[in-house]
Design brief:
By secondary structure, the protein is α+β, with helices and mostly antiparallel strands. It is 26% helix and 41% strand. A hairpin with a 2-residue loop joins strand 10 (183-197) and strand 11 (200-213).
């Protein structure tokens, strides 16, 4: 209860006016709770395929993230801000990825930069405004320009494209939240803007759908090599 009061007070100090059920759901998803999730990101209007990150968060602080592309599975284990990528020559930290290129490097960087729903949702609740209940039981609110720009630039550009982060004009975005039995079940980020890259300029809508399941029951094994290297990095 004390944690809920402290979290709610912290959010209010940042100017948020949040419905109590949403604050309570966020509190239940704090670090230490195991769960599984998927994050599907679509760039509507851009010549880029959708990407789905599958993740598992454990009670010990470790997290497993995976992307499957063209029958190849890319794996990353994370502990806090540190991450290890599974490669053909063993588990590697970001600084050791010089041997990767193209799709493999791009995918590894996406996984290493990905936040867990616990981290991302906490940040979003501090930034969203006007969060209100909708007729279907969900909650929706507006995201400030700074948040939209940060989210547009939160993943590397596609392999083979510009190394520069895209220029985004006329950015705007919304956050929509669904709860289930008092727990966070799903949230959707809809970001809009005119994106300019060296090979592409167009109105784009980026839709990221995060779905959470198996709260409190998720389990997974941590390879000893990855765990040892992660522990040494801290």
């Amino acid at each position: 209860m004390l944690g809920l009061i402290i979290m709610a007070a912290g959010l209010q100090l940042r100017g948020a006016d949040l419905p109590p059920p949403v604050v309570e759901a966020a509190d239940r998803l704090q670090d230490g709770t195991s769960y599984s999730w998927s994050t599907k990101t679509e760039l509507i209007g851009a010549p880029v395929d959708s990407t789905t990150v599958y993740g598992k968060s454990g009670t010990n602080g470790f997290a497993l993230l995976e992307i499957r592309r063209e029958k190849v599975s890319y794996l990353v284990f994370k502990l806090g801000n540190q991450g290890m990528v599974k490669t053909a020559s063993g588990w590697k930290a970001e600084a050791e990825l010089a041997g990767l290129s193209g799709t493999a490097l791009n995918t590894a960087l996406i996984l290493l930069k990905s936040e867990s729903p616990t981290e991302e949702f906490s940040h979003l609740l501090k930034e969203v405004s006007g969060l209100k209940s909708e007729p279907d039981g969900s909650y929706s609110g507006q995201l400030p320009v700074g948040t939209v720009l940060r989210l547009f630039n939160s993943v590397p550009p596609p392999a083979g494209g510009s190394a520069k982060m895209p220029e985004v004009r006329n950015p705007n975005g919304t956050l929509r939240i669904w709860l289930q039995n008092g727990f966070l079940h799903k949230y959707v980020l809809e970001l809009n803007g005119n994106i300019s890259l060296s090979f592409f300029s167009h109105e784009v809508q980026r839709v990221s759908t995060v779905e959470i399941k198996d709260v409190g029951t998720t389990q997974f094994e941590i390879p000893s090599e990855a765990k040892a290297k992660l522990s040494n990095e801290r």
